[in-house]
Structures are given as C-alpha cells and as structure tokens.
Amino acid sequence: MSSLIETPNPVPFTMTSAPPHPAQPMLDAEKPARRKGNRKPNYSHIHRNPLPLEIYPLPVLIPHNPLSLLAIALSYLAQVLAPPRRQPIYNGYFSSATSSVHVTNTATARQLWEMGFFGKGSLSRSEPTWLESQKRKGETSEEATRRRRAERRGAKLDRARKEQQAIAQKLEEEGKVEGHANDSADVHVLQVPAEKFDNIAAVLDEASSRTPTPDKDEVKSNGKIEGFDEWKKTIEANGIPTPPPTSVSSEASNGNGQLVKKAQKVVRFSPTIEAREFDLSSPVISPIKSPGASPVVEEVHQPPAIAENQEHLQLSLEEAFFLVYGLGVLQVYCDDSDTILPASSLLPLFRRHSYFPPRSISAPAEPDDPFMLSYAAYHHYRSLGWVVRSGVKFSVDFLLYNRGPAFSHADFALIILPSYSHAYWSETDERRKAVAEKTGKNWWWLHGMNRVQAQVVKTLVLCYVDVPPPLSEEERGYQADIAKLFARYRIRDVTVKRWTPNRTRD
Asked: Taking burial as the number of CB atoms within 10 A of a residue's CB, which of 94, 138, 439, 494 is the most buried?
C-alpha cells in the first residue's frame, strides 16, 4: 500500500526471526451490525487507525492492465489539486522529575490513546478514564465509607425496633396488662439507636435491681408503692434520671363477690424517653434528644463538582521518541519552557534519563545505554505492526498486543537482553569481565520468568540486541545521524516455551 505521506527518517533494522505480522483490523463495512442491548463501545471504530497518522492510499497497480496507471494518475492529480488537510502536530512536555513526557491536552491525550495506544493515564491503570469514572461514581472513597456506615446504622435500628415490638407483643399475649390492652399509655414501644439501646437496658436493669419488690401490703388502691420518696432520692443521688416506678393494679372477682388486687409488672422509662415521640412508620430513627432541645440537622455531604480533568497522559521515553522521530507527530518542550527539543537533542537527553538516577551531561554516551537497547526493540516491533506496551506489571520490559489492550490480552512478554557478540567486547580481559557482569543470568532466573508468564498465559520472548562497539573517530559524525546510529544494532528474538513430552511427540 502506497501513500503520499511517508514516515520521516525510517530506521533500518536487520532481524533474523520475529513474530508474524498481526492481523489487520476489519473495515467498518465488513463488520456485522451490533446486537441490540450491547452497551460496550465499538472499539473497532474507535481504534480504526493503528497510528496517529492520516493516510490516503493510492489505487492498486495492475501491471497487465493499463487502466490502473490511469487510475493512479487521476488519484494523484486529485490530491495535488485538492490537497488533504495538514497532519496535526501534538505537544508534550518533558518532565525531568518523572523521566517521561506529559501530554496535558485532553483531546491530544485521547487521540494518542485511540490511535496506537500510546501512553497511560496518570490517575488510571492504563486508559485515561479518570474523569469518566469520577462522573460515573459521583462519590469519593470517604463518601462511600460514610454511606456504608449509615446503612449499617440503619440495619441496627431496624433490628432494635423489631426486638422492642416483639417484647411488647409478648407482654400483651401473656396478659400482664389486663384491662389496659387498648391503653397506649401503659406500654411504650421503645425505638432508639442500637448503640444507645444497651445503655438504656443497663439503666433499666440497674433501676430494677435497686427497687424493692412490692408486697401485697405495700400496694395501695391507687397503684403506688410505699417508700416512693426514699427510692426517688436514691435514684437521683446516683445520677440516673429515672422516673418513679409505676405499678398497674387490676381488680378481679374471686367468685364470692370480693375484689382481689393483683400486682402487675413494673415498666419504667426515663423522662427523656417519656417525652420523646416515636414514629413507628419511619424507616430511620433519629437519635434521642432532650425535651425542648432544638433539632440537630445532620449535614449531608454532596460530592464536589468536577470542574476540570486532573489527569494527563504520560508517555514513556521510547513512545515519545517514536512519535517525535519515527512518525514526526509530536513536539516535546523542555519542562515548562517554550523551547522545542528536536530529535537530535532528545536522544542524548533520553539516554541520560534512562539511568536511575539520571547521569550528568558530562558523562559519555555508551553503546549499551538502556534507552538505546529498549528503543531499538520498541521501534523494531512497532514497525512490524505490534502494539508495544510496558510490561513492568509482569516483570518484563514490553508486552506485545495483536491489536491493542482494548481487544485482547497480550500474546507475548518481551525481555530485552544485551548481546556482546562483536569481537571488540572479547579482546581484553577487562572487557570480558565487564560483559560477564552485565550478562550474568542463571537458570533459576529464566525458570522464574517463564513460570510467571505461564501463569498469565503469555509466551516469553527473549529479545537479544547486539551491542555494537563504541564509535571510532571516523564515525563520530553518526551522532548527528540517528538513522545510521541505530542501524548498527541488530535484533534477534528467541521464543521460550515449556516442552511437554506427552504433548509434543510429533
């Protein structure tokens, strides 16, 4: 497929083996209609562009058909007379604190994610969806905790109300209050918060224990108990604001025409409970308040309105350099200044920040700098059509997606290993010792890495990057030519799989 827009400064790479080219996405016309009720977004339409580029393909050239040449000429002439719109250039800002490039424009961040899955949201796991999630939730973690506590409090109040109703019903069934079954003043259904119910029960139990059991001689015709004043003084001295006990007496005939007085169960309530009116139909019982006190209105915390998006897109060094140098669609500014850094200035800057902590400007550039190795592998697999994402979650360098994380999980987990196969690295004992320290890996490390990838159903790929020798005096001019500088690196990949004898006999 040819195009009028070509990729600037293509970087040549030599490879011996590589994963096959992923399948291209289907066109919109070829896709079946969406089923009704499917609420998932149409990712095939959203991510229809594999890269943030607008291409205008020419008709197919058929050698044995002369009319195909005419179609190509007409298409080329139409684009010359009516040129397409200009390719947009995005802006990013290099952050020395995070060693990454930040894209603060919301529209730009969305386009870079939808066209190639570049970067990650600073407040999200991968896709920058912080603003949408905040609008969808409408509450913060603190508000969610407050809501759960209110739900638990309501459940306790319901349980306490049901227990009190059961007690009142049991008293009526036992006939403890005869002749006053319809008198609502004798039996009160107590509805209080669950956390205060235990305290009230304890007060009633204590008052009952301190109250002498009334004898038959102590019960008068008016239903009061002798020693009332002494009992009241004792209760008030102990700080328990409990009203005097009341006894409900009933008169019944014994068959000889004589009335017999029967003492009934004593029910006591505090003045606060007596003055309180409870609504049995209300699902939520408010806390007990003293009589005459002004009602306390509980403040309802509304979720704050989100004025602006507080999230930005964070690009890794490899992704930013690929957009700047490989595609030419990104401009990187130095921190918060207005200075645009070209690709020739970004390369030494990214090479220094690939170390932790970043190296100083006076430090010489090495051919095995981490950025040189990682970008060589990143550009290699991006040029083959793979979506390359960070693999730090699975203890690897990169993850290779067929179409992107919105469609399926990653198929391959990539580990970058420097290979010092050039004769320069084995000329002296000092170089051989340095190479052995950098490449020293044991079988336990390989077995552990393969075990982790097997658990997440990914194929482990060892990407060997052949490190060239340092530049000679004649090759110092390669520093300005980035294409020639990366052309010195070679990529070799090896797939690691677990061999099962009973499954792979063929």
From this structure: 94
Residue 458 annotated in active site = yes
Token reading at 141: 């973690």
> Would residue 180 show up in a list of annotated catalytic residues for this protein?
no
Nearest CA-CA partner of 416 in 453, 452, 378: 378
- pLDDT confidence of residue 239: 54
Q: What is the pLDDT of residue 139?
A: 63
How far the first Cα of the chain sits from its last, in Å, is 39
Is residue 200 a contact partner of residue 192, using CB atoms and an 8 Å limit? Answer: yes
401 is catalytic: yes
pLDDT of residue 476: 72
Q: For 266-295, what is each residue's pLDDT tens digit? A: 555 566 666 655 555 554 444 444 444 444
Q: Which one of 409, 433, 438, 441 is the catalytic residue?
A: 409
Those residues whose C-beta lies under 8 Å from the C-beta of residue 28, and which sit 6 or more positions away, are 44, 45, 48
Output 234 or 59, whichever has higher pLDDT. 59
Which of these, 186, 185, 196, lies nearest to 161 by C-alpha position?
196
Question: Could you give the CA distance from residue 280 to residue 177 in angstroms, rounded to a whole number?
Answer: 22
Q: What pTM was estimated for this model as a whole? A: 0.61
Edge-to-edge strands, sheet with 100-103: 120-121, 313-315, 100-103, 90-95, 330-334, 340-341
Alpha-carbon torsion angle 117, 401, 16, 470, nearest 10: 40
Catalytic residue among 90, 401, 420, 464: 401
pLDDT of residue 342: 93
Asked if 160 contacts 201 with a C-beta cutoff of 8 angstroms, the reply is: no
82, 74 contact by CB (below 8 A): no
pLDDT in tens, 169-209: 888 888 765 554 444 444 444 444 444 445 545 545 555 55
Could you tell me the sign of the dihedral formed by the alpha carbons of 114, 97, 318, 417, in that order?
A: negative
**Per annotation, catalytic residue among 90, 458, 464, 489:** 458
Query: Are the CB atoms for 181 and 172 separated by under 8 Å?
Result: yes
